Amino acid sequence: MSDNQPYEYPFDLPDEDEIRFRDAGAIEGRPAGVPSSYDEGGSARWTPEAISEVHALAQLGRYQVRGYNTFNKRLPTFDDLTFVPATMTRLPLEGYRESCDTTTVLGGGRGIVENPLELKIPIYIASMSFGALSASAKASLGYGASKVGTMTCTGEGGMLEEEREASNKLVYQMSPARYGIDLDHLRRADGLEIVVGQGAKPGTGGLLLGMKVSPRVSQMRTLPEGVDQRSTIRHPDFLGADDLAVKIEELRIATNYKVPISIKMGATRPRFDVAVAAKAGADIIVVDGAEGGTGASPELLLNHTGIPTISAIRAAREALDDCGMTGKVSLVAAGGIRSGVDAAKAIALGADAVMIGNSAMIAMGCNTPRYPEDYAKLGTSPGACHHCHTGMCPVGIATQDPELEKRMNPKAGAERVARFLTAMTMEITALAKACGKSSVHNLEVEDLRALSFEASAFTGVKMAGIDRAYDW
Amino acid sequence: MSEHIVDVGKRHIKEINEEIQDACAQGKKVRVINTLSRHNLGIGLPDGAEVSFEGSVGYYCGGLNVGATIDIERNCGWALGEGMSKGMITVGGRAGMSCGAAMIGGTIHVKGDAGPRCGVAMKGGNIVVEGKIGYQSGFMAHAGKIIALGGAGESCADALWQGEVWVAGEVESLGVDVNVVEPTAEEVAEVDKILEPIGLVDSSRDWRKMISGQRLWYFESRDASAWLMI
Prior knowledge:
The complex is a heterodimer of chains A (472) and B (230).
Chain A: H1 16-19, H2 37-40, H3 48-60, E1 65-68, E2 81-83, E3 104-106, E4 117-119, E5 123-125, H4 135-147, E6 152-153, H5 161-166, E7 170-174, H6 183-188, E8 191-195, E9 207-208, H7 215-221, E10 229-230, H8 241-254, E11 261-266, H9 270-280, E12 284-288, E13 294-298, H10 299-304, H11 309-322, E14 330-334, H12 340-349, E15 353-356, H13 358-364, H14 372-377, H15 402-405, H16 410-434, E16 448-450, H17 453-459
Parallel strand pairs in A: 5-15, 6-7, 7-8, 8-11, 11-12, 12-14, 14-15
Antiparallel strand pairs in A: 1-13, 2-16, 3-4, 9-10
Helix pairs in contact in A: 4-16, 8-9, 9-11, 12-16, 13-16
Chain B: E1 3-7, H1 13-25, E2 29-33, E3 50-53, E4 66-72, E5 86-91, E6 107-110, E7 123-129, E8 143-148, E9 164-168, E10 178-181, H2 185-195, E11 207-212, H3 224-227
GO molecular function (chain A): glutamate synthase activity
GO biological process, one term (chain A): glutamate biosynthetic process
Keywords (chain A): Oxidoreductase
């Protein structure tokens, strides 16, 4: 046979249906050769989320705004670290019996202020404003914190009398917007916090949408009722770190050198920012990682700015060590701390204390499965709600609506906050004792191992098993 | 009222402020000399106190004032009377940046010029500047009045809330979201009432009153272009 002749089977071709798997065994409606991607799609770029984002922006003509915290799933978390308790090379403490000190003193290291903040536990409630939260939620946090010997912070909305009454210790925040600044409030505070940024949206000022700018909020902030309040990020009366040093001196004079002064920052370049803040004279530096929560923020900033809390803590501690400021300046870590386990890891990484926001709200009742019809109105469900920005909080915490506010019993809320803080503390001491520490503050980086290369690279924590730090 | 003299020199700032506060508490009039343009002089002075500073002062002089009458002979640095809630501060010369930043009440009177961002974030009270106010004065002023008798620099009255900027003389340029409005006779009379006690009323002035255009007060998709200005 010549090579130029087309090949022919020595048999007849069967029906086309036979060739295309449409024989008697075929399943109706499920043709072979049609991949599931016809239904599911497979583009890594144009995910259903990315497509709906374009549809949203095309309608709005502006970026999206929401509350809660980052939805970026690529961040390494505290779960990428594990503790390596005492075994043969060291001795554990009796976890169920022996005591473990949790006393935490913040802001006394420089020996300048008369009353450093003495807390019974290494956890306190983060600065969340009256405005973002209801007045009764602020009071609940205060009473709950007081019961377990810790403190709360005003946030940027000024000092709320209910919170001052509830909190045995209250830190007064000086935000760039300086809402309701009052010398009397400064002097009634147990500490001051100068905010230069926050983890949820570093480099951008606070945001409170009009639905939450109620008559009382607008009066406390000297704002027209119902405006979309977008605050400044730059302070009105200092620009750089050298001026901030003068400002800190002014605040010390105003408060008669009685209370410590914190600087709170979003974690971006903590290795340098923390060193500069220490040089400016802060008694306490609060580093808020990219997982930090918020009542409202441009969504892109939540998802795409800042560095993870675990990496920020190491960098901040290294900065203080290098400047010789460890022991003189206290370091507080915040941003996505969900439990005593996360808190213990933060302390081991180098924090003197941690600050919790979202988890304290969740303890009060945020995202509880109640009032399902109101979650539905927001297009969400219990466990997935992130609609703090709307002021329509189904459980009455992140709202200024008096009817919704009634849905949280403030006394029960206080008790839940107290119990949650107690449980967190118990978790921290359980881990500390397993690691052989008689004080939670003796937890150290050596007590941790990383479970992923990323977490190890981000923190300098040794990889599990090989017990060696890579020279990243 | 007997007078107490506080000599500043190179003493610790804490000691200086304590001496000023003690003398005020005893009901004495205070004269602060040898100021050397030091920062943080006269912080949180009490209601009814009378304190004068010879020469020039640095940053935050009269900061968080709660009702004192403060007189500065020559110039002052940044953020004079920041956060003050009550009282009167007079500056004989010029004021630096952020004069009256975030103040809540009371009056600041600057006889010379004031630097940039005069009245930034102010929540109330009045600032009267006989000379010119610097760039971006009135930035995000929530309430109160900034009154400049000798013109204003660039980006005047930028992004106001409900504060007002009144200028007699040239305004180099307007900030974002400003409306320049013709003041009514009643509004001019209100300003004259502020100027009257300091002897600065002049009916021949051609006022430009600047208030918020309110286009930056709300997120609105139909006005996205205005929103992009910031």
